[in-house]
Design goal:
With about 190 residues, the protein is an alpha/beta fold. Helix content is about 55%, strand content about 15%. The strands form 2 sheets. Strands 2-5-1-6-7 form a 5-stranded parallel beta sheet, sandwiched between helices. It has a two-stranded antiparallel sheet with strand order 3-4. It is globular, with a radius of gyration of 17 Å.
Amino acid sequence: MKVYGLTGGIGSGKTTVRQLFEEEDVPTLDADKIAREVVGKNQPGLAEIERAFGSEYLVNDELNRAKLRELIFNDASSKQRLEAILHPLIRQRTAELIQELKKQHPPAIVIEIPLLTETGKPDYIDDVIVLDLAPETQLERAMIRDQLPEKDIQKIIQQQASRAERLAIADIILNTEQPLDELRKKVHSLINS
């Protein structure tokens, strides 16, 4: 049974492909969801963020995500400080969840990790699945989904790993510009090979 890391840039179809794996009875985890969990109310991650950035980044004992997002979007050193807090906590919690899932003997486990290229491949990942598509399609999809202007999406894309960097770490590449039925077949054959 393999543990796959699923990654791709903004607008690449990560959620859609994760759902295709779920259709194949493959349990999935979402690193973004785990990240929210480790900074939830009364969690050690929240306390560490408060110590590092100050209580002004909390509202009613919960993380003020909008304020923190604005800070890290505009200050690289704050972003690095936040990542130094979050990434070890996310990896630890993910490893725990993988161990729980393995007890169910699934055909595979898929973890959606948007920043896999940027943060490096954790020990618990066997193979990396990179979702790839033309930059123009990526931009168009992200603008439609997030209802943001092109300049804002471009800024996000520039902060992410490049397409070449993602492809360089790929064990498996899925082109998400193909029709959904084709993607579904590729996911099915990957799990059943």
